[in-house]
Each structure stands twice: as C-alpha cells, then as structure tokens.
Amino acid sequence: MTTPVELSRPLTFRERHESKIRQWRLYAHMFGKSFSSMLGLGLVVIFLLLAAFGPWLAPYPEDTVGAFNMANKLMGPSAAHWFGTDEMGSDILSRVIIGARTSLWIGLIITGVGAIIGVPLGIIAGYRGGWVRAVIMRITELFLAVPGLALALAIVAALGPGITNCVLALSLVWWPGYVRLVEAKTLSVKEELFVESARSIGAKTPWILWHHILPNCMSPIIVKMSMDMGMAILSAASLGFIGLGAQPPAPEWGAMISVARTYMPDWWWYSLFPGAAIFLTVLGFNLLGDGLRDILDPRSRDR
Amino acid sequence: MTGPLLDIQNYRLDIGTFDGPVHVLKDINLTVNRGDTLGIVGESGSGKTVLVRSVLGIGPKASKVVEGTIAFDGQDITALPEKDWTKIRGIRISMIFQDPMTYLNPLFTVGQQISDVIAAHEKASGYGVSLKVTRRARTEELLDQVGLPNPAMLFDQYPHQLSGGMRQRVLIAMALSGKPDLLIADEPTTALDVTVQAQVLDLINSLVEKLNLTVIMISHDIGAIATIAKRCAVMYKGEIVEQGLTADILSAPKHEYTRRLLAAVPDIDTAAAKVAAEPAVGASPKPGVLLEAIGLRKVYRSQSGTEVTAVDSINLSVATGEIFGVVGESGSGKSTLARMLLRLIEPTSGDIIFDGKNISGLTGEPLRLMRRHMQFVFQNPHSALNGRHTIGDAIGEPLRIQTNMSRRDIEARVEALLDIVQLPKMFKYRYPHELSGGQKQRICIARAIALNPHLLILDEPTSALDISVQAQVLDFLQELRAELDLTYVFISHNLAVIRQICDRTIVMKRGVIVEQGETERLFLSPQHEYTKALIESGRKTSRAANLSASAGPQ
Fold it and tell me: Cis omega (within 30 of 0) on the bond before A249?
C-alpha cells in the first residue's frame, strides 16, 4: 500500500476513486484473458449494435413491415440479398437484423420482470425466515414444479397469441429462479458480522436489506440475468415457432423459422439464418454470463 | 546422514499478481539439524507460512522460485516432480495445520481418517496396504501417543464430537502416522483456548523428547515458540531478520524489529503502570453505575428439544468511566452476554439497566434510538465491515441512520473521526480489503464512536490482530477513553491483555460468573480453582516465565 500522505489540496477524481479504478482494471484484465468470455462479449455487442441501429443497417427496411415482391421470392443468397429472400420475396438479412431488436427487448423484459419480482421476494424470504419464508418458498416451489415453458404455453393459450402476451406469460414463469438464488445468498450474507454491526448502530430492516444484503447479492444476480437473457430469447422464439408468439409478418426469429420449416430443405437459407441468429445470441449471452461469473467469484477478488 | 536435515540456501520466492510480482521471500538461509526444534516468529504476512509450505511443496499458486534451493536430507526438493513428492509428504515431512476443524473431514470418523492416511503412506512406499485390523491398531496406538483417552472409542467418533483441543491432538496423531523425520507445526495453538494451548504445547514437547522429532513451529505467539523451540528465527516482511538460540533472542534481541515485537507482548505477571495512572483520571469525575444486569439468563433450545443455558443468572454492574473486563474461554457465554447487554440477542429472562433506565423491555423506535448510546466493537474487523462500502460510507453510516445531518456535515464528521483514530483522511475513499487488520479495527472503532456513545462493548477487539498491532490498538483505546469519557466493557480470553487495561474483571465459566473483583486482586490472589488454572496456563506461554525457564538450565 502506498504511504498515506496528508494533502491540503482537494483530491482529484482519479485519486479519490483509485481503488475502484484498479478493481475495474483487474476485472477487465481477467475478462480479457479468457477467449470465450471475449467471444461472448463480442457477440452480445454485435447484436446490441444491430438492435440499436437496425433500421439504418438493414438494406431493405420496407421488407420488414410486410412489403412483398413476388418476383424475387425464395432466391438463394446473392450479392443483392446476402441471406436470400423468403416466400414473399422479402430480404431475409433485413428481417434478421430488425428481429434483433425484438428478441433483445423480449429477453430484457422477461429477465428484468423476473428479477424485479424474484429478488425482493428472495431477500425477504431469506432475511425474515419463519412463516414468511415458508409461504414464499412453497409458492416458489409450486411454480418450479411445473415446467416453465408448459406453464407459459397455458397462459398464452388462455390470453391469446401475440408478442405482448408471450412476454407476459414468460415473465410470470421466470421469477422463481431468482427467489431461490437470492434467498440462498441472503441466508449466508445475513450471518455476516457487518449485518449485526449495522443492527447494533440502530439500522432499520429496509436499510440493512438495501445497503448491506442487496449489494452483496448482486454478483450472482448479474450472472444469472446474463445467462437468462439467452434462455429467455430462446423461449420466446420457441413460443413464436409454435405460433403463439409474434405473428407474421413481424420479423421475429422464432416466427420466421416457424414459416420457414415448410420450405426445408430446398430453400435452406430461409431457416438457417434466423436460426443462426438465435444460436449466436444465446451462445453470446451464455459465454458472457460464464465470463462474468469467473471474474465476480469472490475467490478471485483478492488478487 | 551427517548433513543437516533441512537446508535452505538463498531462497527467494515471488508471487505473480495483477500488480506485478510480489517478493514474498527474500534471501532465506535456514538450516535445521536432526533433533532440532526451530521456531519461526513473525506477523501475519511476514511469509512464514509460505516458507514452510514451500518446504512441503505446497506453496502458493503462481509462485516462482527466483533463486536458491531447499535441500531435504541432502536431496534438492526445490523443483521436485509431483510423483516424487508423495514419498516425502506426510511420510518424511508432515505438517500440523492451524485450524483443526477445517482440516478434518466432518463426514468420516476420526479413526477412518487416520487409517486412510496410513494406507496412503503404505501405498506410496510401495509395500502394499496392510490389513484393516493392523491399521486400526496402529491408529489407536497413535491416538494413545498424543494423550487422548480411550482411543478404541475415539476411533469411531466424528470430528464434531470432539473439542478443539482433542481435534488438534487428532491432527497431530495424523501427522505422526508416517513416522516423519520432520514435523512442521503451523500455528498449532492459535485457534485454541488458553488452558488447551498449554496442554497442546506440553504434548508437542513430550513427543519431541519421546520420538526424537525434528520440529519447525511457526507462530506469532512468542510465548508458544519459547516453550517448544530451542532455536528461533524472526521473520519480518519476507526476510529472516534474526536467528539464534531462543533464550538469547528473548533476553538480548539484536534486530530492531525483534525488540519492538518483544516490547509489544503484554505480560501477565506485571501490573501495567498505565492502568494505575488511568483510574485516577477516569474514576474521579462522576462515580455511579452506567450499566447494570440483573439475573440475566439466556437459554437456547436445540432442535432435539434439549435446553442449553448459555448464560445463567448473571448480575453485574459497570461503573461510569471504568474498564470492565470479562474473561473466559470459548463457550463460556461471554459473547452471548455482550450481545444481550446491547439487546442484539433477546435475553430469556432478566433486566438490563442502562443509565438508570430499564432497556430490557424496549422495542421498535425507542430501542433504535437507545442504540446510539451504547456501541459494539466486534472481534473480527475483517468481516465487520461491508466489503462493498468505502471506509467513508462505513463510518458515516451510523450518522446517516441516527441523525439528520446533511451530507456535507457527515463528510466533515467522518474526516474528524478518521483523525481521532489516527488515520489519514484520504482513507475514506478506500475499501476495507485494502486496509490492514489494525487499520480496519480502527475504522470499526471510529464507526462505534461516531455517535458519541457512553458505553463501548469490545468483544475480543484485538484477538484477530498481530501482537504489535494489538499493543497499538490497546494503547489507542486507553487514550480514546480518556479523551471521550467512555466506559468500556472489555471481553477477552487473553489474561495478559485484561490485566493490562481493566479496572475490574469478572471470570466466566459455562455461563456463570465464578469470580469477580478488582483486576489486580484477581491476579495476585485468585480464589476460585478455575481462575487459578486460567492464570497458570496463561503464565505458561508468557514471555517472562519462559525467559527464566529456558535460560535456567543453561
């Protein structure tokens, strides 16, 4: 450690946050050393860029809102249409690019809502204990006992197909995982001395939960959210594939494959490219989550 | 077989970290002959554990030997392949670890674990594994050797059924199972109670005599080293600053660091001059009782329905301005008592009177507001601070919770508090993991005094710290008390520390007070058997006693 010297001048930003900067540089260093983490980060960044700038990047943006050009239907990949065209003559590349935004939104909302419902419940269950915990955990287990996708199917079937209902249904089945995770973490964190220390200076329960328990639960939550992004996108695509999610002509990857499967295998490009997009996004988020878990692991903190 | 058993020459070791290589060991020269007992003393972080672990080939990951060699019985073991290590580790060199609980597998019986070790050794030596019965007999013989009663029954017991001292004996038995030439003991007594410490040290001593062992013992406790080791090396920041006969080093330390270290060790047999001076300041202004406990009891009910009385009908009164000591071994209920006094644990029955008010019935907001007048300093400063908060946040937290001070006022107060605990102001931007143990404990104290409390309850505030740091913190606590007019309840298992700073003391055993009174009287003429035993075993590892004992025969 550097020898502490009293300075009369106010410290610069860099000096005040020296330790934070070092911590972030350490994270970056560890993350950068792992090829798979960087690959995951790269894939996620590419899809984020596609989602952000899709309408400007897509060569034929009008094709994504239902324009058709029967003269060009089902053409193979070419210079004009890199990913080929579909049965309406629309450019598949444009539809895949625009679809990125839909898919990422879906993933973000599902994991976000899941975490917003699950994390508070988990913290309360873990911290309170007793019958509160028993009630919350039994309800959680009830949800976990039914396969998520099957439950979501039932909910969408009841509400009617459509992208909003699909997101709603998946969010409703997504939170139990967070309750489990956060409850377990809270149980261990609340035994830490600093929680007792906070109580001994007269902190109220909400203060302790917000300032002491939650920050110490953040690493596993971040890792799980990143992993879940991929799974949520996949689940939404599955619902789209069986016709319960986004409805054609909306450019959603799952729905595109759903239509394209009748054109297999002769017009292979039609299902290959949306499928590859799903595959790469899910892979990207999973690798990113793995990488984050490696660097956020407390065992690697003291380096 | 005429050469030294262990010969370390110019050994230098680096550990690669994100911030570049750290020179952990610098130019170590050490020789250990057969039958030697060598002690290595040093603070945490001085590299003593890394050194002995390198001898056993289990040094830290990412470490790199820069130069030098370690030779064991004439064989260079600096870069030995893993295959050859199996013939040395546990068989020719074995090690006793610090924490006996974590080094025993809770799922297997004690006997099973030792016989497994025997089997592993037999396999490694290539003679084939002997019969189960033979191994059992050998295990029982080993258990008997380390002074454990009824080895046949013990064989089938699980680690959690044994006390800390017994577990440490089991580990020693395990280390002896391969009939090692060299036994390395890494802080073998640190995790144990005073009375047990003395027993374990006696055991090691008798084993050295009986089995003609060669021992290297590491400790931060100079008293423990002096009981065991004939020769001694002092390590400081990765270097051996001094080595020689233990008696010589203790009586005439040459290096400046050794002198500081020896001066910092509190001595059980001297009445501290400071204490004599302090009460005159503390006692004169306002006599009166600040804290009183009447018939305080805490009963825990285990899952099987049996009741355990952790604290049984304790009556005590703490006068304003005094330092009130609580001594006892682990499990005596002293921590439970402390937490009950602060209402962090609900007492089963009894009353707590603080400043003339009964606080045992308070709940909700009144209890929360009362908390600002009495504060707690925890044993382990490493976990008492939230690792995600900066030091500034940690010290400012009580102010944010209990007062309406503006952000700016809090900042100013935090800086003032850092000043009081003698740390630089820029520490408020640091995180706990960047600070040393002593600094962290100062932060905890700053946090505790932020609200100007009347009473501080200190639960073993120095036992997680190095000895030289402990001395600093104790001095600092005494200064602080005079400055801020505080009353302390000081809990410790270390009698020398209690004697150094406490005015009055109670001795606890299994939840009851066995003796109480003026600290000096307690030490000079203890009445109760238990107090006598406690002081006696404390004296055993005391520096002064060892000085005369080890200097005597020569």
Answer: yes
Sign of CA dihedral B260, B264, B270, B273: positive
The residue type of B352 is: I
**pLDDT averaged over chain B?**
83
Contacts of B96 (CB under 8 A, 6+ apart): B168, B171, B172, B175, B183, B184, B185, B186, B188
Q: A60-83 burial by CB neighbour count: b if 16+ within 10 A, else e? A: bbebbeeebeeebeebebeeebeb
pLDDT, tens only, B114-139: 998 888 888 877 777 788 888 899 89
Q: What are phi and psi of B499, to 5 degrees?
A: -65, -35
Contacting residues of B for A19, CB less than 8 Å apart: 429-431, 434
Q: Are B117 and B177 in contact (CB under 8 A)?
A: yes
Contact B150/A at CB under 8 A: no
Which stretch of DSSP H or E encloses residue B119? helix B110-125
Q: For residue A46, give the nearest of A288, A281, A290, A274 by alpha carbon.
A: A281
DSSP state letters, A17-84: THHHHHHHHHHHHHHHH-HHHHHHHHHHHHHHHHHHHHHHH-S-GGGGGT---GGGTTPPS-SSSTT-
Residue B217's H or E segment, with its range, is: strand B214-219
Is the complex ipTM more than 0.85? no
User: Letter for the amino acid at B531?
Assistant: T
By the 8 A CB rule, do B495 and B270 touch? no
Token pair for A245: 């999610």
Note the Cα B174 to chain centre separation in Å: 23
Share of chain B above pLDDT 70, in %: 94
Q: CB pairs below 8 Å between A and B: how many?
A: 87
CB distance B535 to B524 below 8 Å = no
Query: B434: which chain A residues are within 8 Å (Cβ-Cβ)?
Result: 1, 19
In angstroms, the Cα distances linking B477 to A206, B206, B418 are 33, 40, 14
> Is B359 at the interface with chain A, CB within 8 A?
no
A187 touches chain B (CB under 8 A): no
To the nearest whole percent, how much of chain B has pLDDT over 90? 2
B451 part of contact set with chain A, CB < 8 Å: yes
pTM of the shown model: 0.78
Is residue B331 within 8 A of residue B308, CB to CB? The reply is no
Residue B257 corresponds to which tokens in the numbers above? 């660091």
| Paired residues of B245 in beta bridges | B231
Q: pLDDT category, B552, cuts 50, 70, 90?
A: very low
Interface contact flag, B397 A16, Cβ < 8 Å = no
In whole angstroms, give the CA distance from residue A211 to residue A79. Answer: 56
Residues of A in contact with B395 (CB under 8 A): none
In angstroms, rounded to a whole number, what is the distance separating the alpha carbons of residues A118 and B257? 55
Which residues of chain B does A297 touch, with a Cβ-Cβ cutoff of 8 Å? none
Per-residue pLDDT tens for A287-298?
Answer: 998 888 888 765
Identify the segments of chain A with pLDDT beneath 70: 1-11, 66-67, 297-303
CA torsion, points A85, A88, A94, A100, in degrees to nearest 10? -110
Residue A190: strand, helix, or coil: coil
Provide the CA B352 distance to its chain's centre, in angstroms: 31
Which candidate from B389, B398, B430 shows the least CB-CB separation from A201? B398
CA distances from A105 to A27, A142, B69 (A): 27, 28, 61
* Minimal-distance CA residue of chain B relative to A2: B434
CA distances from B122 to B72, B131, B312, B313 (A): 21, 11, 52, 55
**Which secondary-structure segment (H or E) carries B314?**
strand B307-319
CA distance B490 to B503: 10
Best mutation target among A22, A24, A197, A295 (most B Cβ atoms within 10 Å) is A197
